[in-house]
Amino acid sequence: MDTVPAEEAPLGTSAIRFLHYLRDVRQLSPHTLSGYQRDLASLERFCKTTGKNTIEELVEADIRTWAGQLHRRGLAGGSIQRSLSATRSFYNFLGRESGLLRNPAASVQAPRKPRKLPKTLDADQVNQYLSFDTDTVTACRDSAMAELFYSAGLRLAELASVEIDDIDPHSKLLTVTGKGRKTRTVPVGSVALKAIARWLEVRPPSEDQGPDSRALFTSNRGRRISVRNIQERLKLQGRKSAMRQDVHPHMLRHSFASHMLESSGDLRAVQELLGHANISTTQIYTHLDFQHLAKVYDAAHPRAKRRKGD
């Protein structure tokens, strides 16, 4: 485990064991581990101000006071909720490890934040965006990336990590490694498969047989393309196709989810395709669907239309 920065409180042995558990057993990403580490360090600093020796001694009132301090320091509700979630997970770990029965963070909630609806493209905008000019090797790759994003609803990190062998063109299925290194199998449309096939015909050979040799999407040097490069290439295509807004990978993922839900109405299926652990995360797309229906209603219903002068 990386050392804690000097400005943060040193972590106690139980917190370090918890972080090792998250890394070795749950196999969380370095980015997620860093977040847990910062949250526990913040709790350790607060513990010192209470006169208690360890965070195991904190009670619910202490956790509420800590959350209140975070709020007064200007932290957003989402950030406080994440800190509380990390704290609840930590105390649950202590309960399994040492039989600690109470979880002082169990009932503490952060201030609610308004949930922003994800930005999406409608079907016509997607078609406009995906009209790639594939006369160069780079354009073939960018077209294949964009088509796969929209066809399978992938996350940015998921697309960057796709290997050539992860796609079965005969069954039209892709094996995806998502958050927490969980795998799922998703279908891939024929248009995306054709774009990938065109890219593989011109894909530059790898310089060696290292970990990037079987990466599906690579740079001109044959190395796995970075997430930053993917973002920049998709944004560039948006400008080339005269989109009125910058297009980013998650906009294509959100569009995929919204269009699938609008057409099928099957929330559970969309949850599986997106790889969401909780269906509550997927339910945000139902709001997008209702938003679309409301616009149709306002435009079409005689009693919904505003009269001149209203």
Sheet-strand content, in percent, reads under 5%
Q: If you average the pLDDT, what whole number results?
A: 83
Q: How far apart are the first and last residues' alpha carbons, in Å?
A: 64 Å
Shape: globular
Oligomer class: single chain
Q: What is the helix fraction of residues, given as a range?
A: 40-55%
Helix and strand run: HHHHHHHEEEHHHHHH
Q: Given the helix and strand composition, which structural class is it?
A: mainly alpha
Number of helices: 13
Measured on Cα atoms, how large is the radius of gyration? 24 Å
Low-confidence stretches: 1-9
What does the largest sheet look like?
3 strands, antiparallel
User: What order do the strands of the largest sheet run in, or round the barrel if closed?
Assistant: 1-2-3
Number of E-state strands: 3
Quick rundown:
The chain is about 55% helix and about 5% strand.
Highlighted features:
single chain; 310 residues; mainly alpha; 3-stranded antiparallel beta sheet; 13 helices
